[in-house]
Amino acid sequence: SLKGKAALVTGSTSGIGLGIARALAAEGASVMLNGFGDAGEIEKLRTDLEAEFSVKVAYDGADLSKPDKVAALVQKTQDALGSIDILVNNAGIQFTAPVEEFPEAKWEAIIAINLSAVFYGMKAAIPAMKKKQWGRIINIASAHGLVASPHKVAYVAAKHGVVGATKVAAIETANDGITVNAICPGWVLTPLVERQLQDRAKEAGTDVETEKKKMLQETQPMLKFSTPEEIGALAVFLSSDGAATITGTPISIDGGWVSH
Ligand code: NAD
């Protein structure tokens, strides 16, 4: 059980982050939600989670492309929940184009949100975790933190960077009761992937269902999507005492993608 633990999950108003927030709350952790979306819907999500799992759930809409906002979000988590024991750096965006056509502003935004925010989050949270001599940092990288695909130069660079930053933070905190790991999902059917499927269907003159099959066949021996619930279950395990000596590791949950 994670009763008494306080977790910040960035980018948790949707997709994988929401799956992780739900899974941590189900184990009794209090949760700070973050991410964009309709204010009314987010407030309903917050109160629904509180009611369903009888834990405190807070929300802050910090824009993680801004370094000072990341540090402030970590502080707000401590103010609202009393501590920060589990940090899940999950917020991320995608954009696809060949290198020579890749817009510079998209490169900057992806590096800021997918990579730099992970650094700023860890930098802000590690002192409090060290003081308590307990902490769990879970960085959501990707299969693209380990291997490449075309048209994803910024994303692949950022996710490889996340895996590297994870290893450094892990070895620095190895004797402070803190573990730092990266989860590397393959395909998960979230709004981030649904947008890619729609673009692909438009380009190929097909439909989303056809592109789903093709997308999986291109990269994953196992022809099914992982779910936000499954990523949440892995985050719960990494937060548990059973995972106390797993640190500095990129953990694939990808239907065999990077193995073949
Ligand atoms: P999603 O689009 O469903 O959710 C992204 C979340 O991040 C949302 O809550 C959004 O509001 C938030 N966000 C975006 N920009 C933000 C910003 N500047 N500040 C604060 N919050 C911001 O996407 P997802 O698929 O759930 O992706 C979550 C993470 O998982 C990302 O890091 C992504 O790269 C990674 N990932 C996804 C897949 C997949 O197949 N879906 C695979 C591997 C890794």
UniProtKB/TrEMBL annotation:
<dbReference type="GO" id="GO:0003858">
    <property type="term" value="F:3-hydroxybutyrate dehydrogenase activity"/>
</dbReference>
<dbReference type="InterPro" id="IPR002347">
    <property type="entry name" value="SDR_fam"/>
</dbReference>
<dbReference type="InterPro" id="IPR011294">
    <property type="entry name" value="3-OHbutyrate_DH"/>
</dbReference>
<protein>
    <submittedName>
        <fullName>Oxidoreductase/SDR, 3-hydroxybutyrate dehydrogenase</fullName>
    </submittedName>
</protein>
<dbReference type="Pfam" id="PF13561">
    <property type="entry name" value="adh_short_C2"/>
</dbReference>
<dbReference type="InterPro" id="IPR036291">
    <property type="entry name" value="NAD(P)-bd_dom_sf"/>
</dbReference>
<dbReference type="InterPro" id="IPR050259">
    <property type="entry name" value="SDR"/>
</dbReference>
<comment type="similarity">
    <text>Belongs to the short-chain dehydrogenases/reductases (SDR) family.</text>
</comment>
